[in-house]
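Repro:
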Amino acid sequence: VPGPLSASLTNGFGYFVDPAPSVTSATPSASNVTGGASVTIAGTNFVSGCSVFFGTTSISGVTFVSSSSLTLTAPAKSAGTYDIKVVNPDTQYNVLTNGFVYAVSPSVSSIAPNTGTSDGGEPVTITGSNFVSGATVKIGANSATGVTVVNSATITCTTPSGTIGGVNVVVTNPSTLSGTLTNGFTFQPVAMPDIISIAPDNGDVAGNTPCTITGTD
């Protein structure tokens, strides 16, 4: 400035050899509040020695797999949605907004009735804990229909078709966290009807004779 007077900001601007990182996804994108989930961070331009933050929490034990992949173990954290921030050693960084969710995983304790025919279509009630509105249900390989979250401990739905035998019952909350009741439901063969008798066993050729058929299934 006229005078001549001057001032400087030490290290106020940087030129970088490498491009800035970019964070595109986390798989899985959710963890129980107790932590422990193995998470893969995908993106571009990651550099060995980079740091990862969930919100303001620095994550320890980050493994550099490649310039597009990092792995880590999610720590315990309060329920909520957090940004994922990756910072390269040269201080360049990128943030995936609301990239990771912490929640309480659902737990499935029972299903009633716990047996049904393999063609499905039967109403059932699932009990457990931490069910959230919008949860989905799979019984075996297929998704149940008409899923209604009555409350955090009760879900009603209709069974899908399935393979004969015991199958898992899985409830998945919108957070993608799920709970499983192993072999909780058994698909049984569809019963074949058997005719024992018809009475009367004859009638007028004109028809219109009331009859009663007895049998099983």
